[in-house]
Amino acid sequence: MKRYDICQTGKTGHKLNYLFEENVVVSLKRFTAVCSEARISFAYLHIGFQLANPNTHVYSRQVIPFVAKLSGADGLNLDCKMLFDSKKYVLSTETFTTEHLFQYPGKYVVYAKCDILGGSDSFKTDDNHFYVEDALSASKLQISNQLNTHTYPASTELIFHHKYYFPISYALMLNDVIITELQTAQTFDKKKVSSNETAKFEMNATIQRLVGPGIHNVTLLLQNNVSSVTFLTPITFNEEIKNLKVMTKQYVGLQPNSFIISATVSQGAPVNLSINIKSTQTRLTVYKTSKFCSRDCHSMVVEATLSRAGIYEVEATARNKISLMTSNTTFEALPQIFDVYITSRGFNFETRREVFVFIRGDVGKYEMNLTIGENAAKNSTLTISKSEYEHEGLPNLPFDAKPYKLIKDESIFHEARQVTVLIRNDKQSFRFVRNVPKALQTSCLESVRIRDGKVGGGLDVPLKVVEELVLSVDLNFICVRELFSVDYKWRAYRVTSKINIPKTGDEVQLNASSVEPELLIKADALLPGLYVIKVYANITSDDYHMSLAKGDDFTLVEIPARRLNFLIKGGNVVEAGINTTVLKFESSIDFTKHEGNIKRDWFCAVTQEDLPMTKEIGKIQRKGSCFNWKTLWVSGNDTLEISRNKLIPSEQYYVRLIISGAHYDATFADQKIIIKSKPAPVVILRCWSNCEKLFSSLKPIILQLECDDCIRHSWILSLKSGQQMSLCKNQRFCKLNKSILDKVKTSSNVTGTGYNIDGDKASATLILAPLLPPSGGICTVHPRSGIAYVTKFNVSCHGYAQGRVPLKYKFFAVEKDQNNLLQHGCDPNLNDVTFPSKSSFSDVMIWVEICGPGQACTVKNLSVSLTKNHHDNTDVISDLFNAISSQNLQQTAQLMLPMSSANILERFQINKVYERVAKYPIKTLMSVKQLADVVRHLVDGFGVINDYHVRLIAKIMDRIEHTVHNPSTSEDDDVIRSIAASCIFVTSHLMQFSDDISFKIKESSRMTRLGKLLMASLIPGEDTMTFGTKSVKGKFLKLNNDVINPLNDSSSFRLPNIQTLNNEVINVEVFTYDSSINFNTRTHKVDQVTSVSMTKGWQDEIPINRNEAKNQTIGFPLPAQPGKGNITMRVESECDVAGCHSKAAGWALFDWMLYKRDGNDLFLTIHVENMDQKIRNCTMSLQTTDQGSFKLKKEFHEKELLYTWSISERSLPHRQVELNLTVFVDLGAGFYRIGSLINVTITSFILNCLHWEDRMRDWGRALAR
Asked: Quick one: how many helices (H) and strands (E) in the chain?
């Protein structure tokens, strides 16, 4: 601390200027006569002087802007300069901007200085250190390297040359292996400018053995803090070739078919393999080819072709820079037979069956023998004259038949027969055998067809499985058998080409649904490739368990390379306050659910341009790193946490997650983090629904702002056009419905912002990009009108082409609030469907949903006009029993819709329908939806006839619940809600039929579970959802601490005391059961039953425990009872200069008598309702009219439309008395004219509230209110 003495000169009026650069003490040191009379005035100026430039690392030979800011120097006469090395700039204003060019790289000190004119004092800014670096580019560096050919594994050097620039850091990588890193000198050498620089890397034996011999990719990364350059070059490690052998078959085919020549070496790489084929007769070369192997050359394969028959010699030559070897062998070329497929068609007993023999071979003539069973062989000459054939009327085939010649024959099969085909050329014989089953006497099966949407079937174009594909099978019958079963077997064969016949060795394992009529193929369940899918159907009789018919069908699917779509949780852009100490990152999907070795790599950079496109580069690049001079790569863990104190100072950071793995295409997701200059709440944007990178407009996007410190929230949707929409005012949750998403035509942003109590805020932004639905097509229905139950309608869609990716079609029949799913899959046609009619003339709406990948859908609405038929069509009964016997859920759904309204089944037939439907296998949500529709039609149309039906349907409901809660596919939430609605309808019917109270209580629990499915897309704070059937009414909502008194609806129930902590979500379900569902037990009669379920959590819901439930005040609607009346209250207004105060009062009389309690509490419950909304509070009092001492009073301090006062019987007189109820209401500051009246309704109940006790299997008092 410095000290300054004043008044030393003894002069008066002396003024001193001092520049204080630190804390000072001002004192009077000498007290002279003059000085003692001096008046001391002390003033100071606070001078600020700053030099600003956003970057500490800048480019050389480029103009760099600088800004100097001077403040608080008013009244001072200053001479200011900015100093750059030896150059000075005069500062003429308080804010001065200048530019400077650093000619050479290096470390520079820049500062600004001011001298106070008229004195010797001066002051300056802090020293600003700038690191000037050369901008690197491939054109400037002119990188070259010496010939990179070396002998393996002898040590050598890898040498690179380039122009001198400073500074440069080197990183070298061989293939994907990081080898070494080098750093150049720390000081700039001006003498080296324009000269060449050399970088040397030692390639010792240890390094070479990491990659092995052969040609390898070298990546040299040259980088500094302002730029980076990647240089790619090959390097060859030559290993001597040893033990070359060449092999091929003894006999090979002719053009256009090729044959394989294989060459093996025991060691050596790289290898240039030359194949030279000569005729042994003319010694002329007839074919030459070559193949280069860069590494792993122990086995090499070459394809060759020959146009003429003959004996040939093949010579193989293998060479590299340090060795040469040859090997030869001989073979003969002549027409070959490559494959034969034998099948038959025709199933009727004593009818000649067609035998089909498909032959693929070289053009030429052969001898052929065809033997069927014990019959004599048929000898013939086989002539193959061309490479492709056109065929018509073929049976189902597992390959493309164009390259095959077809030979047909006929025979009668009383039993299984063996078909043998023997084909000879001049030197060889080819034998093929297949067992053909016997004809079946009682067969009704006409065909088996996979519903794949292909016109006429065939394997010419494969179906590309992007996400998942559901294949179902149709069995077409020509007669009726009510008692039969079908065994299904799906098989998959991986083939290299669609012309290849699948063999047993090609079969791959399918999932558990491979023995059911529906097959679910997931893209990540099979390796990428081409697959022949076969379904085999075996029909057996139920009575004798004998085989009646067999059939099969095939389709071709393609599994592309897998690709994972994901985001980084929290949003694409996230703001963090300066108070944030740790940044956390996590992927939006759980990779443990995906097969294969999934690898995660996290990278962090200061600019998005520096984020790596490949994980290999990111592991060696340092330029732009968030961690000063460390690599961009941060971690390979599932999640990432970064401490702020480890990051270099910056206003923003970018994080990239790259995902890769076996059979997966590498893909990435980014997140931008903006660091605010002041404290801010921690805000996380969470997506709950429709969260893919590309969203579907058919289902809502549900977002949530997670922020413990936030008291207010806002949401903004920013469209590409510049339009902004305010959404979800002050809500933590925000639902973007279809009406909003339809406005998002291109990439747009939705931003959620949270505000804390201090007014600080932070935002998170999610980029929305819509999926483009199929377009350009049309859907039609024919005919447009017809007769109910009779006319067969056909719906077809065409023109929605989308390459090889199959579109998914869903056909719905819409009635009231139910969408009946008639068919789903790849088939664009719905054929031969009939519809019911509720009146003489009616229209039926048909809804067609055409969906591409990712649930991007187009919806087409059609309609048909119906005339009611007074004569039911009983022909559909045979179709129904064929459908349920073959477990064809789609056909059952189509037939059950009209039949449930026609009521044409006999009782024994209804029993069979229930039994068969109960056994339907279900795997996907679409099949669950159809089964729920079918059961709803059964219950609604045919009724629940007996307890046997109840047990069957209950089992179906169990299976539906299990599948919905554990879905194998990802479908729209609307499907789940539709399933739940159908199941609630069915369950309420079961409860009406059964007299078993335990069964009813059990099914009421099912209703609660189904209610949770209805709430799938409900968000906290949203309006109450209602749902009901004839016998049950349900209300559902989600609550959080932003919601107060959410259910003050007198027609339903009240939950006024709900409280939540820490943004906790409360899920509330209330079902009120009609009196038609009798819940009476032997000991108790109940007039009304209401079930309440309260759980915590958004997705993983957990029940609220008993202690928490006790803290809730819950009220329910009550059945109509005597004791209802009106009170007319006269209003009085008292006014003075300060304002008015209004109130009203009224009274009513009613009789009270003691009721028998049966061990339980009784309650007198009084409802006061229909009050004016201006009422502020209410007071009720109750007393006897006989001047007794009994008196009760209840005050209500909330503004309500319904006031409920429940009084325990124990608190009331134990005798019959007349009670006087007085109601007093406070109307607030409003003025009412003299004579104004208010009418209220009084309803009194004698209520005994009971709670179901599972242990007692009866009603009890516990928890009852």
From this structure: 13, 81
